[in-house]
Design brief:
There is one protein chain. 27% of the residues are buried. The chain starts with a helix and ends with a strand. It has 498 residues and is α+β, with helices and mostly antiparallel strands. It is built from twelve helices and twelve strands.
């Protein structure tokens, strides 16, 4: 059970059940306590008095002018009071006073036959009140230790005559009864107050948790929102921890970005050292060829000067292309990122490479999300185009005649990457060259300078991505013929939805 809400609800239910149980126990105590004893004693005395009067009325119907039947009254007193423990009673007449008395449940050593002298005034007053009004009368006198209860019922057959009963209960019964009543009221109030308070806590916590969820759900991609305090100490600890984590994450991202920039600079400096010797070699060869052509032209007749000049211009074009590639490689890339619809952009890349492919009989094809026309990504389309164009040019050059070159694209929102893949069915890259594949002037072609792959990787690093090589068919033979494993170049760029 991990839900705080469920635990609080169960706690609330348990609290209500416990309070209900306590209330039930108090109710039972109330029913069996002193207050209930007073009520029971009062009911017992009143009921006994009424039973005696009722039975006598049934035995002597109508109003009799003669005196009450004392023997019948004594029998009725004994029979009725025998079933009412701790209740004594008698018959009083306004003209004759006490006519009969009985206390059959008396617990003394002998039968009690005399009316208690101390209680006689109260008994007489209560009987006179009932006989005079013709209605039952009841008097309660509270003493220091007990409550005296006297009830009287008129005898309809004999005006001025009444039956009385008397019993006793503990003196503290009324106060105890009131205390229990007040206790139950306070308990009910506490139950309602605790339930209302716990419900308010639940609603407040749920409202603050919902606000935190909305703040997290509404955060932009790649950002960590700063949460506002909720006013609930436990939740604010989590909020403070989350905000501190967000601050550390932003600092870590800044350090990572700086480290990537430093790594990029270090790679450029390392490559520059290796490149110096290769540049000198690449420049020396065209210069030597131009010098040789010029010297031969000087020694040859004027008719052959045009051929020499044409050869020299060819070498100059070669040097110019080399210088442009070097400048593009060593100068920092100024990225201008924007939202790019992949399908037309990829199709444009294929159209650019199509003349060279048709000249060699190589088939070009587009696959993946870009072919579906629904994907978009954010990057610099111009620099990324130079990288893909170089990869396609290399693939067309290495694919066998009648072979194929595939361009595919995948966008992965979960990994936040846009993956561009160029693959061919050529011989692949020899193992000896793979370690230096993306360094300038690392090439396996006699007419190549190896700057295309280096420039493509520079574009990937400038975007914060990477360029990888892998054989198209793992385990196939490497190099040499058109039945090799082929080559697959994967350009990964950080991607976000436009």
């Amino acid at each position: 059970m991990r839900s705080l809400r469920v635990q609080l609800i169960l706690f609330w239910a348990f609290l209500l059940a416990a309070c209900a149980l306590v209330a039930a126990i108090i109710g039972v105590l109330y029913q069996t306590g002193p207050g209930a004893q007073v009520a029971a004693s009062q009911e017992s005395a009143t009921q006994a008095c009424d039973d005696i009067a009722t039975r006598y009325a049934k035995s002597v119907p109508g109003v009799a002018a003669d005196a009450p039947q004392i023997d019948l009254l004594r029998v009725l007193l004994h029979v009725v009071l025998l079933e009412a423990p701790q209740v004594e009673g008698g018959v009083w007449s306004a003209s004759s006073g006490m006519l009969a008395y009985a206390y059959p449940t008396y617990e003394g050593s002998s039968a009690k036959v005399d009316v208690p002298a101390a209680e006689s005034p109260l008994i007489t007053e209560t009987a006179r009140q009932a006989a005079g009004t013709g209605r039952p009368a009841l008097n309660l006198v509270r003493g220091s230790r007990e409550v005296l209860i006297v009830a009287a019922c008129p005898l309809a057959a004999h005006p001025g005559t009444a039956v009385w009963t008397m019993t006793r209960a503990h003196a503290g019964a009324i106060a105890a009864q009131e205390s229990l009543r007040n206790g139950i009221a306070v308990l009910a109030l506490l139950v309602v107050a605790s339930g209302a308070w716990l419900g308010w806590v639940l609603l407040r916590g749920q409202r603050q948790i919902r606000r935190l969820e909305e703040a997290l759900a509404g955060a932009a991609d790649g950002t960590v929102p700063r949460l506002e305090p909720t006013g609930i100490r436990e939740l604010d600890r989590i909020v403070d921890g989350f905000n501190a984590f967000g601050t550390r994450l932003q600092e870590a991202r800044a350090r990572l970005k700086e480290a990537l920039a430093q790594r990029h600079r270090d790679l450029r400096l390392t490559a520059l050292g290796r490149m110096t010797a290769s540049v000198a070699h690449e420049i020396r060869n065209p210069i030597a060829a131009m010098r040789l052509k010029a010297e031969n032209a000087l020694a040859a007749p004027p008719a052959r000067h045009a051929d020499a000049l044409a050869a020299i211009i060819t070498q100059i074009d070669r040097l110019e292309g080399l210088v442009q590639s070097l400048l593009a490689l060593v100068q920092p890339l100024n990225l201008q990122t924007r939202s790019v619809a992949l399908a037309p952009w990829l199709q444009e890349r294929l159209d650019t490479a199509r003349p060279a492919a048709e000249a060699r009989g190589v088939r070009l094809a587009l696959q993946g999300d870009g072919a579906a026309g629904a994907a978009e990504a954010v990057f610099d389309p111009a620099h990324a185009a130079r990288a893909i164009d170089n990869l396609l040019d290399n693939a067309v050059r290495h694919a066998p005649e009648g072979g194929e070159v595939l361009l595919s694209c995948r966008v992965d929102a979960a990994r936040s990457t846009c993956t561009l893949v160029v693959e061919d069915d050529g011989p692949g890259v020899p193992e000896a060259l793979q370690a230096q594949l993306f360094e300038p002037f690392a090439t396996g072609r006699a007419d190549g300078n190896g700057l295309g792959l280096a420039l493509a990787r520079e574009v990937a690093l400038a975007h914060g991505g990477e360029l990888h090589y892998a054989p198209r068919h793992a385990g196939g033979p490497q190099g040499g013929n058109g039945n090799g494993s082929g080559a697959r170049f994967t350009l990964e760029l950080p991607w976000r939805a436009s």
